[in-house]
Amino acid sequence: DFMQASWDIEEVQAKGIQHLASFVKDRSAFPCLLKCTEVITHAMKTHIDSLDLHIEGCTLLLEILSQALEQGVLMALGECVASCLLHTVRKHSENEEFLSSLCSLLVMVSASEVAAENLRKVGIIPELLSILRRFLHNDEICFSCCAVLWSLAVSENNGDQAVLESAVPVTSAVLQKHLQNGVVAESACSALWALSLQGKVADSDYEPTAALLLDALRMNPERAVLVKNGCLALASLVRLSETAALAILLDSKGSGIELIKDEYHLHFDEPGVAEALCLLMNEMVQYDEVMLDMRSQKMEKLLSEIKLQFPFS
């Protein structure tokens, strides 16, 4: 009430946010803090030029959403909160340190399907792509932006087609830059999966995208989620074009089929990985030439192994 009575006074908003932050450690105060998110974001939007207030507001929102996720509470934040976060991103688009925190906050917000849809509606995707282009070297920002892109691409509608098509080369640049960073590579693979699932990969990008995803699998073989999502992304590409299937067979760095076998044997107890590999192989055998090659490389043997390992799936 104190904050709402004096929106225009920056000091009142700053003191209010500081006071709310003092309750973060008190678990019993959590239900009340959940109701304060719109008040905090409104204060940030009203005082768009105050970096200090934005930093404190963002830190408090991170604390509240972290606790919410820990307790399994998905917060479907409204369009006004999404709009505020968009304005904040635009205002501080050059501030690398603050953007790291802000993008982490966007990841938590986009965990809710409703909130992800609201972020998409207000036009956050072009801002994310702009941030990625500017801070391609920053692994935290790259991880967060790709994670948000994944959430938003899944809830995509036809109005965002051109924007999402431009997201593929940017996401590929992130993956290329951070191939050896498993956390970032996993996030980028997930984003590419969502984008390819929506058919946003240009014809000229099928082969290089497939080759890049294979590189990610080779560089991070132990990361089950990356392997699963990388294979799902490859399956989506193969479904769209035989070019992608041939790129897997004829990859210059080694046989994609041998890589698939190696990945399965490394993760033979992971049903999610096995399912993704089977989906990829199922898409590949739709092309006669590819199927003949897979036969010659004894893929039936691998399929029999998977069938024995997961007889009830």
TrEMBL record:
<dbReference type="InterPro" id="IPR016024">
    <property type="entry name" value="ARM-type_fold"/>
</dbReference>
<dbReference type="InterPro" id="IPR011989">
    <property type="entry name" value="ARM-like"/>
</dbReference>
<dbReference type="GO" id="GO:0005524">
    <property type="term" value="F:ATP binding"/>
</dbReference>
<keyword id="KW-0418">Kinase</keyword>
<protein>
    <recommendedName>
        <fullName>Serine/threonine kinase-like domain-containing protein STKLD1</fullName>
        <ecNumber>2.7.11.1</ecNumber>
    </recommendedName>
</protein>
<keyword id="KW-0067">ATP-binding</keyword>
<keyword id="KW-0808">Transferase</keyword>
<keyword id="KW-0723">Serine/threonine-protein kinase</keyword>
<dbReference type="GO" id="GO:0004674">
    <property type="term" value="F:protein serine/threonine kinase activity"/>
</dbReference>
<keyword id="KW-0547">Nucleotide-binding</keyword>
